Predict the structure.
Amino acid sequence: MPNFTLPRNARSLRKETGELIDIPDLSDDEWGELVERLALHAYSKLRRLFWRGVPYTQGGVVPGGVSPEDLAAEAVESFLEGTRVWHKDKKPEFLDFLMSVVDSKVSHLVESAENRQSRRIHEDQNNEPAYKVTASTKAAAEGVVNSEHHRYLFIGWLLFP
């Protein structure tokens, strides 16, 4: 985990309005723990999802190669830059606020075109051609998506052997 240090009693300018935002007065150790907890939260979100048709725990790759640590750092960065505003009346705990930022970033990745429109092609133990993509789960929607990709991959294989 990278060392995360902010000056004590730091303040930051919000880009759009030029207004000062309060940064919580946390020690270096507290910032480090906060980022670690955010990364763990991000991992717990990613591991439950399918990425390009493959579960994260079985090698599914998040669009852009984003890691849980990246999501944690991006959440803190979004707050510091002022692009994500902490409304203390809605989320009084700073960690809860940052977790909601991570949740939002994961949601955007799930809905991204890269995640919805591309599928990973698994290597087959029977040396089947790459265009023969099979459903990795018995979920009907997953099977439909994979059969659709199967058709396009097969056509591409015929046209460009």
